Recover the amino acids of this structure.
């Protein structure tokens, strides 16, 4: 991580109001736009952004970490992951008859940090795959139909695409499971 990115994280953790305002003016509009497009409102965007900042600060204070992308992109990714988690949680809380377990803010923060670590491990290992595998998996994760992938990448049949995606996913899984961090994250 470049020195200015590291300094930005340090300034954020120390509560530097100027840095926080800078992040709000630079990154928050993108986060708000994403959340508005994905079944949220402005209040949701503000909550998610605040939680993401708190998550970064807590994580920085507990254990140093490296941001591979730009700080802004990392913060946006953290917000995106938090919002997706929130949407998933909302789907599971539907009726009064269900037993709803309220998780403390601290537990939620811990889970969010853990999910972020899983995402980072996944992204890191994805970079270790061949360009072809990365391209195939990116299209697969975007839910592009096999037939379209076949045509786009010039494969002979969608069966070949399925096999190739299966092999790429297997390679990625193996890389992730062989990383010592996987055991630590998996057991939590």
């Amino acid at each position: 991580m470049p020195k200015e990115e590291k300094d930005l994280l340090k300034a954020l953790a120390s509560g530097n109001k100027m840095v926080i305002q800078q992040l709000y003016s630079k990154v928050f509009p993108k986060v708000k736009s994403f959340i508005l497009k994905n079944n949220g409102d402005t209040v949701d965007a503000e909550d998610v952004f605040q939680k993401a900042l708190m998550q970064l600060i807590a994580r920085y204070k507990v254990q140093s970490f490296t941001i591979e992308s730009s700080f802004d992109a990392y913060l946006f990714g953290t917000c995106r992951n938090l919002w997706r988690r929130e949407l998933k949680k909302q789907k599971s809380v539907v009726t009064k008859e269900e037993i709803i377990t309220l998780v403390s803010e601290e537990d939620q923060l811990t889970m969010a940090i853990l999910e972020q670590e899983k995402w980072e491990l996944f992204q890191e290992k994805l970079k270790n795959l061949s360009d072809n595998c990365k391209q195939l998996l990116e299209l697969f994760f975007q839910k592009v139909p096999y037939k379209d992938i076949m045509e786009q990448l010039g494969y002979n049949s969608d069966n070949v695409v399925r096999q190739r995606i299966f092999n790429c996913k297997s390679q990625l899984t193996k890389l992730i499971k062989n990383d010592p961090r996987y055991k630590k994250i998996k057991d939590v």
